[in-house]
UniProtKB/TrEMBL annotation:
Superkingdom of the source species: Bacteria
Similarity annotation: Belongs to the UPF0065 (bug) family.
Transmembrane segments: none
Coiled coil regions, renumbered to chain: none
Protein name from the UniProt record: LacI family transcriptional regulator
Pfam family, any one: TctC
Length: 320
């Protein structure tokens, strides 16, 4: 049986010895691998002003979209190591893409110095309210009565929304029909419209539909309930889903040879930013929770995620 966790493959994080280093450049580019307006961009732009203030440098968000964030990751991996270029990454390019693809232009475990995880954004499992499901246990019971009949939408094959459903099926030992779409928007629209029954949506995207009664929230993919979804339990609370965890994190990484002193300085500044109630509230409005994890711990989390997704991808036969 596939376990939701995975052993972290940690060899490879490269940091220079902690020592006195030259000051950070006056301007720092925070590279985002997605277009303006999406969650990666919005969260990076919330972090940039307080980070600028803390380190007394001009932190500028630069969008380099393409290939689900992979182009930006490759760009930073080859970038300068003086701290003037940092990657604002999310889980997809750093943990799911390495599990799916053998020919990535970067190695997430060797080509980056993890600075700090900033926030996490679990998804929410939603159902069309015309369906009888009120809990994940209801879905599992129905799927056992009618294998392969219950439908769940995704933003595409190999997307986080696909893997969220696949992990649920694997842990619960059930079979549901995966319906891939070309993007999250159409998948959400058809779930609201009743063409498909279930979807794993971003919280900020799904929240208006949940509040208006057009979707029903069954559970969140994180380890704890969310303030924005009171009364909606983690899916892992379901007896058949022990260990279920999908955390779409957002964090800052530098090139592999970023000096250790600068990693520490930037990590200290990000930690201080996340203690500010104003920033925390702004993040929560976007449906994400502040979730600090510094250098080594952040690296461990990335390694564990890669191992988990590789195991699931192999089980599904999705790797390329």
């Amino acid at each position: 049986m596939l376990m939701a966790g995975g052993a972290a493959a940690l060899a490879g994080w490269h940091l220079e010895p902690f020592a006195q280093q030259a000051p950070l450049p006056k301007m720092i580019s925070l590279i985002v691998g997605f277009p303006p307006g999406g969650p990666n961009d919005l969260i990076a732009r919330l972090l940039a002003p307080p980070l600028s203030e803390r380190i007394e440098r001009n932190v500028v968000v630069e969008n380099r979209p393409g290939a689900d964030g992979e182009l930006a990751a490759a760009y930073v991996a080859r970038g300068p190591v003086d701290g003037g270029m940092l990657l604002f990454a999310s889980a997809g390019a750093m943990t799911i893409s390495p599990a799916l693809k053998k020919d990535l232009p970067y190695d997430p475990m060797k080509d980056f110095a993890p600075v700090a995880r900033v926030a996490s954004s679990p998804m929410v499992m939603v159902a069309n309210p015309a369906r009888p499901y009120r809990t994940a246990a209801d879905v599992i019971a129905a799927a056992r009565r009618a294998p392969g009949k219950i439908t769940y939408a995704s933003a595409g094959v190999g997307s986080p929304t696909h893997l969220a459903g696949a992990l649920l099926c694997n842990l619960a030992r059930i079979d549901m029909l995966h319906v891939p779409y070309k993007g999250g928007g159409p998948a959400l629209t058809d779930t609201v419209g009743g063409q498909v029954e279930l979807y794993f949506a971003g919280v900020s995207t799904a929240l208006p539909f949940i509040q208006s009664g057009k979707l029903r929230a069954l559970g969140v993919t994180g380890s704890a309930p969310l303030a924005s979804l009171p009364g909606v339990p983690p899916l892992a609370d379901t007896p058949d889903l022990k260990g279920y965890l999908i955390d779409n994190w957002y964090g800052v990484l530098g090139p592999a040879r970023l000096p250790g002193a600068r990693v520490a300085l930037l990590g200290d500044a990000i930690e201080a930013c996340l203690k500010d109630d104003n920033l925390r509230k702004k993040l929560q409005v976007q449906g994400v929770e502040p979730a600090l994890a510094r250098n080594a711990r952040f690296g461990e989390l990335i390694g564990a995620d890669i191992a988990k997704w590789k195991t699931l991808v192999r089980a599904l036969g999705l790797s390329t």
